[in-house]
């Protein structure tokens, strides 16, 4: 049986008391990329986009090759109306993962918000090429065609959305019908 001297016992007891009392600094493990991503997404869902961006920045710092971090930061910038910055992030996400239909789609949304309908149409089309069942890409491409007064192309996308089993927003359907002079 091993014997401990009184100073070892008192030192150990003092350390336990300090830890329990919160006076001693306990080293916490740092968060990893996924933890920052997950927390950033949670902030985004709560509408706390600035906090989300801080976490996505940290995830990018830890892993600058993570397309998901750029994608999610682009979403947050878009929600804040900072479309130039969101486009930069979607560009990087696409560079890192060129088969991500959602990155093209969301970059298209940012272009559409800036009134750049042709660029938006190109991105919605690319998203559709990657995922031919991407109904939101069809409806937003249709809306971009509508903005350009290319009503037949808009109707084609409306038909495709319906063929996929989704509903076209009633207001858009009505506006397209009135603008094009027909109902479909």
Write up what this structure looks like.
By secondary structure, the protein is an all-alpha fold. The chain folds into 2 domains: 30-81, Serine Threonine Protein Phosphatase 5, Tetratricopeptide repeat, CATH 1.25.40.10; 99-184, Serine Threonine Protein Phosphatase 5, Tetratricopeptide repeat, CATH 1.25.40. 73% of the residues lie in helices and 0% in strands. It has helices spanning 6-21, 33-45, 49-62, 67-79, 83-96, 101-113, 117-130, 135-147, 151-163, 170-180. Helix 2 (33-45) runs parallel beside helix 4 (67-79), helix 5 packs antiparallel against helix 6 (101-113) and helix 8 (135-147) runs antiparallel to helix 9 (151-163). The longest helix is centred in the N-terminal third of the chain and has 16 residues, at 6-21. The radius of gyration is 26 Å and the shape is elongated. 34% of the residues are buried. Residues 23-29 have low confidence and may be disordered.
| CATH architecture name of the largest domain | Alpha Horseshoe
Class from helix and strand fractions: mainly alpha
Ends distance? 91 Å
Low-confidence stretches: 23-29
Rounded to the nearest angstrom, the radius of gyration is: 26 Å
CATH H level, superfamily name of the largest domain: Tetratricopeptide repeat domain
Count of folded domains:
2
Q: What shape does the CA trace take?
A: elongated
Q: How do the SSEs run, as a string of H and E?
A: HHHHHHHHHH
β-sheet strand percentage:
under 5%
**CATH fold label of the largest domain:** Serine Threonine Protein Phosphatase 5, Tetratricopeptide repeat
Mean pLDDT: 89
Helical stretch tally:
10
Please give the number of β-strands. Answer: 0
